[in-house]
Amino acid sequence: MPATLKDIAQALGLSLATVSKALADSPEISPETKEKVWAMAQALHYHPNLVARGLRSRRSRTIGVIVDNVSSEFGSLVVAGIQDELLRCGYQMLLISAEKRPEQEKAGLAMLLERAVDGLILADTWHHSVETLPSEVTERNVPVVFVNRRVSIVGVDFVGPDDYYGAYLATEHLIGHGHRRIAHIAGPSGWQATDDRIRGYQCALKDYGLVYDPDLIIHGDWDLPSGYAAAKQLLSRDEPPTAIFVGNDVMAAGVLDAARECGLSLPHDLAIVGYDDREIACFLRPALTTVELPMYDMGLTAAMLLIDRLVRSRAEPVAVAVRGRLVYRASCGSHSLQDEGYAYRRWQARGGHTRSQKGYSGPVPIVEPSLNALQ
Amino acid sequence: MPATLKDIAQALGLSLATVSKALADSPEISPETKEKVWAMAQALHYHPNLVARGLRSRRSRTIGVIVDNVSSEFGSLVVAGIQDELLRCGYQMLLISAEKRPEQEKAGLAMLLERAVDGLILADTWHHSVETLPSEVTERNVPVVFVNRRVSIVGVDFVGPDDYYGAYLATEHLIGHGHRRIAHIAGPSGWQATDDRIRGYQCALKDYGLVYDPDLIIHGDWDLPSGYAAAKQLLSRDEPPTAIFVGNDVMAAGVLDAARECGLSLPHDLAIVGYDDREIACFLRPALTTVELPMYDMGLTAAMLLIDRLVRSRAEPVAVAVRGRLVYRASCGSHSLQDEGYAYRRWQARGGHTRSQKGYSGPVPIVEPSLNALQ
DNA sequence: CTCCTTCCCGAAAACGTTTAAGTAAATATT
DNA sequence: AATATTTACTTAAACGTTTTCGGGAAGGAG
Fold this sequence. Notes:
Number of helices of chain A: 14
Radius of gyration of chain A: 26 Å
Largest sheet of chain A: 6 strands, parallel
Oligomer: homodimer
Distance between the termini of chain A: 63 Å
Shape of chain A: elongated
Order of helices and strands of chain A: HHHHEHEHEHEEHEHEHEHEEHEEHH
Helix content of chain A: 40-55%
Structural class of chain A: alpha/beta
């Protein structure tokens, strides 16, 4: 049985309240008494019981996190970002992986509330009801931050990627390499990411005076075979593109398969830029130039927003778009090929995925963050 | 403010104790009263305050998990396995990612204990003191399970992979394809995994009557360039191997680079088996036949062992070795190449990584689990 | 009619903490 | 010198449960 306040109080002949206040460094306790209490706490290896403290103070300093899938590259990175920021601020994380099951999502939410979490981060989830939060969470008024899934619930914060910006970067990069006929293999329609990336692509074309040919956009389903099929179709045309901006890295892998099958030499005959900066991008040959989807930073930002609400009790909701950078590898031709085998080592050296604390400095309400920044 | 037991009691004119016992379905409450209490609890949206319950009952039904790195493929899979089993048993998970920082590991452990976790799972971590657990955890006697990092602490459970078995599987598979000269690119010496995989490789050679040539083992450092260099060396010999069992998938990617550079046609000129079944194995060309490192199952098993201790208060420690299976892809030649682009889709279809509840049925003390099973 | 069970239920303590309110002595103010 | 304020501490209530103990009522046995 670990030491409690009572043990310290008895050992020193003081009252419980005095010890409690001394440990909290309250001004109404004399310096000498504080010293004695601190010394005794040290001697008895006292550690506060956060359960009891949470019961009394009604603040548990734990945050509930529901993520769609911890074991995915995206989910785990969001979690890593959240945890780093929470730990820095003395909070801890109760984690639930919903595994795309709405009922587990709902049950998990209830369990987190029963554990009296101070706040909630819902990452890439919340499939069952987009319109409303359960009454339990609203009436307890625990703050909520949504990550990567825009919802139309009033009063909650949102953190998402700036896909518009990222797609602009990718397309601009291809244009800068002299390409004039650039195709885009997009995600399935109906996705925010698909739309934003198409818009960024179109905007870059326009800004550099290239004509936008709707036939150069083909929709895939984010999966490898769809990228393969789309590339096959593009490359079999009379006037095939010289470059393809692919909506994600997995489809880009399919594009590489198709290009290889067509006997094309990459990146000379065809330049490719992916999206996401998945780990696989370093292992494809040629290694894939791609736009980073800043999942770690998004998690970090979500935690910052939540703690901002908790400690500064900010009221007005904000929406933040986090930007990823373009990661240069061999699939665009700008890099020398000789050291591309070392791409993974470099990827790891910079901490695997980004660990920089960029993209967010204080909560600023942004409605359409990418537009004003780009134009 | 959410409803409490007192609210229910007042609404029904009952005492607090009666309501508490009714909700716990205690036999000393009449069925009629129980019905009324349950109905009222439903009506008032009552949810128990687990913080208060934890304070009183001294059991929080939360498990502390410290993992080396959540954002790695391994770490996130362990976490997923742990969370699935914990959730099934009504437990929740406080997660800390130590990021290879011993001080964060130590601080995190202290924080978890302050939160009165019922048990601890230490996955791939515990770098600072292998010999002893801190006195706080022993004197509170919270059970501990170590995952993937064997420690010489008495009385704690251990879950690890059966690398000996996996390496045997891989080598046996190459032998079955007719290869007689099989090299092994091992991990750095000093690793348990390196030794076990070498021993499995040697054992398979012996069982099938092949001579073991020490020159055919080259040590790498788990990283891509080291696999590349090792393969270059092996392939430049007078009598190069016709197959290589590579100690992990990342080095195997380097082997593929080297083979491509030597103008070899895979898998005809050189067959390759990797280890880990990382996601990248599906994206390499040819897609990599590899042995699964069952991280998800290891996490699942760790949680099972912990809960077994908690609810059945098992005393004697056990060590469990979990086996992964051999995943057949193209790099060994047994598969038709035409559909290898769909490997990722199949990989996802079976749930990404393994989600089967295999490898463990009740805690059985195993000292050297692979030996007796294989022989 | 009394005694003893059995069945339900209530009173109260306990878990470890925080905090509002109270108190006695010391010091400052008029 | 009387009063007001400050200082440093204590008492006690509260947070929402669980659980031990006790007690009243009903019913059966003697």
